[in-house]
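Team,

Forwarding the record for the chain on the shared tracking sheet. I've put the sequence and predicted structure together so nobody has to dig through attachments.
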Amino acid sequence: MAPPVGQIRPGRYLAFFVAIVAVLYTLVFATGDHRAVPKLGIDLQGGTRVALTARTETGEPPSKESLNVSREIIDTRVNGTGVQGAEVVLDGSTIVITVPGENGEKAKDLGQTAQLRFRPVVGSVAAQAQPQPSTEPQPSVTGSAPPTPTSGAPTSGAPASGAPSSTVAPQGRPAPAPAQQPSSGAPAATTTAAPPATTSAATPPPADNPCTQYTALLADPKAETPALISAGKKCRQAPTLAPSKGADGAEVPADQALQQAALAALDCAPGKKDPLVGNDDKSLPLAACDQDGVEKFILGPSFLEGTEINNATSQLDPQGVGYVVSISFKATGSKVWSEYTASHVQERAAFVLDTQVVSAPTIQGAINGDTQITGGQGGFKQAEAMKLANVLKFGSLPLSFEPSEAETVSATLGIASLEAGLIAGAIGLALVFLYCLVYYRLLGLLTILSLVLSGVIVYAVLVLLGRWIGYSLDLPGVAGLIVAVGFTADSFVIFFERLKDEIREGRSFRSAVPRAWVRGRRTILSADAVLFLAAAVLYVLAVGQVRGFAFTLGISTVLDLIVVFLVTHPLVAVASKSKFLSSPKLSGLGSTQRSAVAQRAARVPAGTAAKEV
């Protein structure tokens, strides 16, 4: 037989709650690392967080598929660095990399597009913006082909006057720098020398030149990224920058005036961001700088893509100084590279990484097998070689990203933040406990017990969410939990005040509980529904750490309902049926009951006087 409306069997509800707690903590200790420790964010344990925002040519949000592919590649790069405990999550159209501990600096380089392309060099000039050449070694390439005569080893051709030159003999042995390469030493397809920078400076491009608009946008700090990319392609990737074949098969020379304008528009200053990174067209020519900012290039369309790289490793140069990056091609890429180097002897080929020329050696013979990218006579540093090998090995990203947020927190500061959050939470709980004890007495004790049990279940849920969905509790999340304490206590206050209203109407403690629950339950559900909706809207609209606050606030709201329905109400029902616990002095309802008696007494004489009249 079902109990009357408002009447419950408290034992069943309490047993169900105990079962929930038992299941949760069984999962806590039976899964993952078997430790009841939640996953902490970097602001509580120290580390680095980097948020990468995708850039697109149209300005539209990138597709979900390309974002997922980018996340997987970055995750693979993170694992390749050997960093433990790092995570890569997709937050809307932003990829967030979190690296705990002292290895956070590595995370800042993981968003590199790493788009490697092999392009023929049409021409080059010295970068006038860099009057003194950089002392950093310029990378070059060597092949692992069997030893051949001197002409069979790839060496880097000398750039234009003012740029450093470097040569590398077979297997990476340093060789003397050759004399400047004559302009007529290469076939016509790749010997169209770019005009000197002084010429472009003396003859400004006309107003209708595409590079004029590009230069103006570069100087405008408010210029939007899509506009920069579009203008950059029209200027630096114009089809007429390199010689081509016409419809009739005749040779079409390059537009030297446009070459001058494109080179003049290039800013090769170190640290300057290139808007075309990850957005250049492989089938079109490209005006680009070298990575040291000392040379400007006009490059032809790509003849080999970095996707054809099978593996890349960093190692000590056994024949030279420093480190080298050894790359091996897939079958198709190896064939293309071998055929190209065989048919383009005495021509320069550029290794272009994210629109920057890493190396531009002169081909002096066919290269079969692996190829080494070296740092010239000084070689790469170990960290530089490992970084380059890592990004080449795991592939390029389908999107271009720029850091929109980068935060590094020391472990000491993280511990201090955690301690401050715990102290704030303890103070908040102590104030709530004190108020409940003074105002509600026994009901206050039930409130404290309910809050403690709510904390028990919230803690288990946070531990499991950290394992299952990678949720990390950060400082805003702690703030959400502290705020949720007040909202949870508010549910108890609604129930208890309804209980007092029923007692003022003349009902006993026992009979008032079911009626107060029925009337208060609707208010509790409405209040928590509004709060949960607000937390959900905040989570959807907010970005970054604010979402941690909204997440914990929403979770605590849901768990508040579980505690109120399965713990608080049953415990109050049990207390109402006990003669000892329902004592007016102990329950804290004595003043309410006396007030109800006084009201009834005041109504009785008034009713008697009315009858006498």
